[in-house]
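Standup, Tuesday
Yesterday: got the pipeline producing structure tokens again.
Today: sanity-check two examples.
Blockers: none.

Example 1:
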Amino acid sequence: MKTITLDEPAYARLKAWKKGGNESFSSVVKRVVPEPGTLGSFLRFVETHQTDRLPGNDKMEKAITQRSGSKHNPWI
């Protein structure tokens, strides 16, 4: 067991990932945060946990697309 400190916005974000009132924060972290390692281990995590179906992915996708589109292309 370890004690960690989160500010209010971080706590609210972590709490939003909980599935029901009886899921522990440890379970949320293990479900949502992949173990460190290779890109292959990250891909296995995404495929196993189907994180592409989690709420909020559309917002992340939109932000990535907008950011990518705003970068200057040095080859043009």
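Example 2:
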Amino acid sequence: MKILLIEDNLILSRNIVRFFALQDIQVDLSLDWKDGFYKAKNNFYDAIILDISLPEMDWLEICKKLR
């Protein structure tokens, strides 16, 4: 399984990545919406975990762009 995590809080991101690593789940991390959007458009992910409040663009706008 491969997950994309878009989260701007570095400490929280590291904890989430460690949690999934213990479950043998690969996680690609993006610390901002632009990098996350690029990765989502150019790779296949089984799931995307998206921060609800990112600077510059909220989660709903990102979801609409990805659809």
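Quick observation on example 2: The mean pLDDT is 92. The first strand starts at residue 2 and ends at 6.
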